[in-house]
Specification:
Layout (H helix, E strand, L loop, with lengths): L1 H28 L11 H27 L7 E3 L2 E3 L1 H24 L1
Antiparallel strand pairs: 1-2
């Protein structure tokens, strides 16, 4: 039980870190002030995260279908049944902004 709680907290922390990284990237890209009402940075970051995960998922489904790979339909992880391609897509989408920030910091 304690191990599951730690895994859950680490996962939540990882998601928060990814969303904050995406917000920071978006702030760096915005160069002009517009006086029009905008969505909050958090909602935009979560929307982008879901969109990127969806794109990665579709790409993975196409690759698996094209290569006729045999993958399990469901994977049980801590008593939670998940689609393995969806899990990979979400993990990749969460890692993307973190990797971009590390790259930008190393490049400077």
């Amino acid at each position: 039980m304690f191990f599951k709680l730690i895994i859950l907290l680490v996962t939540i922390g990882f998601v928060v870190w990814a969303v904050k990284s995406r917000i920071e990237i978006r702030r760096k890209r915005v160069t002009e002030n517009v006086e029009v009402a905008e969505a909050s940075p958090m909602s935009v970051a979560i929307g982008e995260l879901v969109a990127i995960a969806g794109g990665i998922y579709i790409s993975l489904v196409l690759i698996v279908s094209f290569l006729k790979m045999q993958i399990p339909e469901r994977v049980c992880w801590f008593n939670v049944s998940l689609d393995p391609l969806a899990m990979i897509a979400v993990i990749a989408a969460l890692l993307q902004p973190i990797v971009i920030l590390f790259y930008c910091k190393i490049k400077k």
